């Protein structure tokens, strides 16, 4: 068994294990990082983009649903990275819902508010989501 110990400032060290005793420590850490990225991606797709919501058993439809779910998650993460770097996926989803709700209410009222008011509402929603 190969054990890699990574010191962490002000915390317990991280321990990484591998049954391949010839594997380099950097590669072991890389495998762990990749594994956690995959697990977090699946978790986020389940929670936020309906990965488990489909009821079909048809293989092609399942493939389509899985691809759609992960594509939506990737688009969401890219928008967050570019425009809202301080928000989590949950906060971003909430912001999008609240923005949609606000625009629905505004459009239902019949009057078109001034652009400054709309920007102020969107800014306030972004603050609430964070």
Automatic annotation (TrEMBL):
It comes from the Bacteria. InterPro entries: RNaseH-like_sf, Transposase_11. Residues 16-74 form the Transposase IS4-like domain. GO terms for molecular function: DNA binding; transposase activity. Coiled coil: none annotated. GO terms for biological process: DNA transposition. This is Transposase IS4-like domain-containing protein. It comes from Muribaculum intestinale.
């Amino acid at each position: 068994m190969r054990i890699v110990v990574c010191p962490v400032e002000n915390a317990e060290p991280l321990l990484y294990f591998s049954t391949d005793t010839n594997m380099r420590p950097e590669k072991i850490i890389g495998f762990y990082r990749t594994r956690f990225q995959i697990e977090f991606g699946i978790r986020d797709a389940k929670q936020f983009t309906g990965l488990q919501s489909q009821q079909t058993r048809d293989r092609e439809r399942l493939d389509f649903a899985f691809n759609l779910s992960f594509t939506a998650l990737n688009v969401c993460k890219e928008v967050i990275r570019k425009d809202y770097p301080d928000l989590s996926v949950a906060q971003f989803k909430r912001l999008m819902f609240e923005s949609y709700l606000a625009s629905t209410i505004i459009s239902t009222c019949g009057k078109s508010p001034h652009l400054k008011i709309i920007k102020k509402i969107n800014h306030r929603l972004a603050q609430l989501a964070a």
